[in-house]
From TrEMBL, chains A, B:
It is an enzyme of class 2 (transferase). Its EC number is 2.3.3.21. Keywords: Amino-acid biosynthesis, Branched-chain amino acid biosynthesis, Isoleucine biosynthesis, Transferase. It holds the Pfam family LeuA_dimer. Belongs to the alpha-IPM synthase/homocitrate synthase family. Pathway: Amino-acid biosynthesis; L-isoleucine biosynthesis; 2-oxobutanoate from pyruvate: step 1/3. GO terms for biological process: isoleucine biosynthetic process; L-leucine biosynthetic process. Residues 5-266 form the Pyruvate carboxyltransferase domain. This is Citramalate synthase. NCBIfam families: citramal_synth.
Length: 540, 540
């Protein structure tokens, strides 16, 4: 029987301390749903005491009915005060979270320098704060800040602080390497010492300042820790937190611990990429386990060996974490994949020749920078077209953009107009529209042209727009990939466009998005009804 | 007295196996000089048997008179043949390198599956190949490919292979975790076993497939390994090689080994960034030790503690590795941050009123969607302006974009032209330029207008361009934030622009970027000398 490890995700709290990571309440809700599906046991949503955004998140998160324990973060009470008087603790209790993480000091130096109080008062702060949240029926997790530095400086005091937390009823005592400066051997020794002295469930929380956060987490588990705190893709302050995306498969596939189900582990790659997309941080291609290059084989010898037996140059089978091997053939180009995808769409795929042709086309497009993993709708259009199951709905003759800032000093708004020439059915439609940006203007002109023919187009809106530079050489002249996400009341779909010209790439994704929408409308009798403004997740 | 560890850099060989990493001979020579100054002991330059580019590199590298031992990479001889008949070994000898790395098999499974020969023949290949390069007066380093997998599968054979290499006179026997799948505890156990059985200097070569390459290298050193092989920034196939940029300070500052001088360690940050520039890969902001965020502190408790004593939230002093502390001016916590930032820039901040005014301005801008933590240069311009320490260099009257796709079906390229009207000094400048996108066209027009006044502008190039949608409601009409990163031969800086119009936001960031560059040029007397075409750096 395998030992299980509790996975505590703090992407939404500590993760947002990372430079350049900022998430709206909306973003956080989307990520929380993914984390819950992945099967983590705790989702730390934020610090309701610190800002209104987090209060809103907790309010709305209650409606998600998560399996994971929704957790709120806060500090032990202020010095020389009481918990009842502490506004942050009050917010924490009122957040509606099922568990509370309370961070407290265990390093005497910090008690003196940062808190500027006495060692005794700090122990009282820990005891009373833990007891307070327990009294209010929350599970209590004690994050012992700087524990390892504290233990090295004054082991007796560091241990005394943990003992206080346990005495007050803490459900978990988590040892934090807050500054990320501790080595795996030290972690192993100190955690072993703690587990021998403190009879409570122990957790580990590490940072990556020495590029050792993953190793330190594993060392702690080897020494008896049973909860691991970390973030998706290792987001976090300075060099980041421990990366759960690497820790999960290491614990489960290599060390024989159980954390999540095998099925959930298979979603690891898509979760990591999804969170990266929402945070608008492109995943490093070489990210362990989930990067697009993690199982990509370049050099000749490797490839020939791989073809003989993939075990020769792969430490695990990529499928276990939902990733794919990439050799000469790109992920989509395997004929079997194409055929199964086409059958999934109910297409007639008897003609082998056609699917070959299609594979070559997709290979070519991917080589040019298209990426269909994030653009299901564009892929479906491609397939339907290849298998002769789509009318284009409309064709584009030409389009133009004029963009002008007549007087910078005068603070006048920019004028942007788009002119598009289309053919719908037999008719030519020639329309012009303004917008407060080129893409908005094109979108408006396109809708204006199509509305008379397809009134239901009114229900479609763009829900996300992302631009990625593909080639960093001479960036403004490089190719860009635009990903557009669109929604109606029923559905959300993504399309892609690639060009050295961001306007052209955006237009391409825009046209795909509308085409896909019109196709599914004509396919399903039921034209989507208008969307109530109130709905959070759909019509953001 | 401290034990010294030999540092073997393979950035120029294994590092170039990384996806998206490709280096010209020119690039490699520049990097070799930096590595030599950093003080690594071996520089593996490439595989002269595999391609002409590497042969050229070795030819030209001889003229550099490196302190480090220039090393050439190759494989043990072909099966059922002789070393004298082996073309690759011939190239290796003729390369003029002082040392040779020979990779050979130690995993029986690989001997059968990949080499498809007998276990005996493989031992002969190892023995004869090592003896051959020794006979030709080269130092011999045996890279035992897949050693750890091999040891787990068949310890006796794996050890026998190492013994053969030693018997043939190998100067170093390097244990490779080629697939990157081994855990630190396993590395420690197996290396301890090897050092007890093989009386020869042992090295370690790890890969990062489990995000454990750094930890595995340290574990091997703890078990007696005395050479560490790795690459700058961890470049390498799949998930990369062990990152020397993290290993060096870990060994030297935390574990008490000596590798390079303290002065050389202070150049670590600039070396890591330089190699990133040449490889044209932007360094992750959160890269341990050397990233721009590695010692960056975001608002609140941390900052106030840092100001009391930086030891509170820093595991080492950033200066030891040539990095520096940054207080991120995000959700601009109080006056103290602004004032300290201004003082850092050597500005006269006596007027409290002014800094108050400035804080309100910055708060307002951040509320509008600006984000200065990722845009130091825009923040600096703002501060200098507020404290009356900047001439605008040029002012913008107006700008226009025309963007046209005359015939979609005709597959004609889009035409994009930008027209800008500026004032430089007293003069009005009115220029037009084409580009393969609106931002590129604006960039070209701006340079065209300014080049006659500031020729050094030719040395500046955009190195990254990011677009982030701020308000997800009705996205194409939402506000966007554009972040632009620019570089010259000396430096890298970031600027920000926000608008509902992506063109306007890009223009704003572009103008800030050029203004900042011109300001620093005029501030430092030495206008950066024009850079010869031949140097990859500027004109990528």
């Amino acid at each position: 029987m395998t030992t299980s490890i509790s996975i505590f995700d703090t992407t939404l709290r500590d993760g947002t301390q990372g430079e350049g990571i900022s998430l709206t309440a909306e973003d956080k809700l989307k990520i929380a749903l993914k984390l819950d599906a992945l099967g983590v046991h705790y989702i730390e949503g934020g610090n309701p005491g610190s800002n209104g955004k987090d209060i809103e998140f907790f309010k709305r998160a209650r409606e998600l009915n998560l399996q994971a324990k929704l957790t709120a973060f806060g500090s032990t009470r202020r010095k020389n005060s009481t918990c009842e008087q502490d506004v942050n603790l009050k917010h924490l209790i009122e957040s509606g979270a099922r568990a509370a993480t309370l961070v407290g000091k265990t390093w005497d130096f910090h008690v003196h320098t940062a808190l500027q109080t006495t060692l005794e008062e700090n122990l009282a702060m820990i005891y009373e704060s833990i007891a307070y949240v327990k009294r209010h029926g929350l599970e209590a997790i004690f994050d012992s800040e700087h524990f390892f530095d504290g233990y090295k400086a004054n082991p007796d005091y560091a241990i005394a602080a943990l003992a206080k937390a346990k005495e007050a009823g803490a459900d978990w005592i988590v040892l934090c390497d807050t500054n990320g400066g501790t080595l795996p051997t030290e972690i192993h020794d100190i955690v072993s010492r703690v587990t021998s002295l403190i009879q409570a469930p122990i957790g580990i929380h590490t940072h990556n300042d020495c590029e050792l956060a993953v190793a330190n987490s594993l060392a702690a588990v080897n020494a008896g820790a049973r909860q691991v705190q970390g973030t998706i893709n290792g987001y976090g302050e300075r060099c980041g937190n421990a990366n759960l995306v690497s820790i999960l498969p290491n614990l489960q596939l290599k060390m024989g611990y159980s954390c999540i189900s095998d099925e959930q582990l298979k979603s690891l790659t898509s979760v990591a990429r999804y969170v990266g997309e929402i945070a608008n941080v492109s995943l490093p291609v070489n990210q362990p386990y989930v990067g697009t290059a993690a199982f990509a084989h370049k050099g000749g010898i490797h490839v020939s060996a791989i073809l003989k037996d993939s075990k020769t140059y792969e430490h695990i089978s990529p499928e276990l974490v939902g990733n794919k091997q990439r050799v000469l053939v790109s992920e989509l180009a395997g004929q079997s994949n194409i055929v199964s995808k086409a059958q999934e769409l109910g297409l007639e795929v008897s003609e082998v020749a056609k699917s070959r042709e299609l594979i070559d086309r997709i290979k070519k497009l991917e080589h040019e920078g298209y990426q269909f993993e994030g653009a299901d709708a564009s892929l479906e259009l491609l397939l339907r077209e290849a298998f002769g199951d789509s009318e284009p709905m409309f064709t584009v003759d030409s389009f133009k953009i004029h963009c002008e800032q007549p007087s910078v000093s005068g603070n006048t708004d920019m004028l942007t107009e788009a002119i598009v020439k289309l053919r719908v059915g037999g008719q030519q439609v020639y329309t012009v529209a303004e917008g407060n940006g080129p893409v908005n203007a094109l979108d408006n002109a396109l809708r204006k042209a199509l509305a008379p023919f397809y009134p239901a187009i009114a229900n479609i809106h763009l829900s996300d727009y992302k631009v990625r530079v593909l080639d960093e050489k001479d960036t403004t002249a490089a190719k860009v990939r635009v990903l557009i996400e669109s929604s109606d009341f029923h559905d959300t779909w993504s399309t892609v466009g690639v060009s050295s010209n961001v306007i052209e790439a955006s237009w391409e994704a825009l046209v795909d998005s509308i085409r896909y929408a019109l196709l599914s409308m004509t396919r399903s009798e039921s034209v989507p009804e208008a969307i109530p403004e109130s709905l959070g997740l759909v019509n953001h």
